[in-house]
Amino acid sequence: MSYQASNPLDEAFELELDGPWTAYWLATLRVLTGWWFFHAGVTKLIEDGLAYGYGPAYMQQMTGTVLGPIPVWMGNNLAWLIAPGVPLFETLIGLALMAGVLTRFASFGGVIFMILFWIGNAGFGNGLVNSDFMGLLLFITMIVLGTGRYYGLDAIIEKTEFVRQRPRLKYLLG
After folding, report:
1. How far is CA 143 from the centre of its chain?
2. How many helices (H) and strands (E) does the chain have?
3. 56 — pLDDT class (breaks 50, 70, 90)
4. What is the model's pTM?
């Protein structure tokens, strides 16, 4: 990022997305977000194994949210999937982000989680922008900017002949 030091009021502004500082920052953002999700998931796995009962109970209490009866139905009828899925998928999303592999795919999973958390914590006592919303923005940022390409395994995987022959795979990588 640069601006004219001689005239700070000049409107010219440049953001170098291919610069080294941007690469370091995006890799750091990806790894820290991955650690956040990995830690959340592995802690649940250590404490409850694949029987994380709070997930379904949490969804059953989402009666007054924008999603209406959908999460309540999911909490009642999909508890067999939600109880093991929350800690397992949080852990896997975190691992994928820390390694920078299938980054967009993992970030999409993070978007789903953060939307459910954001709507589920819909008290919005501090407004619409809360920590769940900020997490949602982190995952969207990683999707848009393809952060797995910055010091992640996606950069290596995208150079393989397998991916070159199937360029649509880059939508999951990056």
Report:
1. 8
2. 8, 0
3. confident
4. 0.83
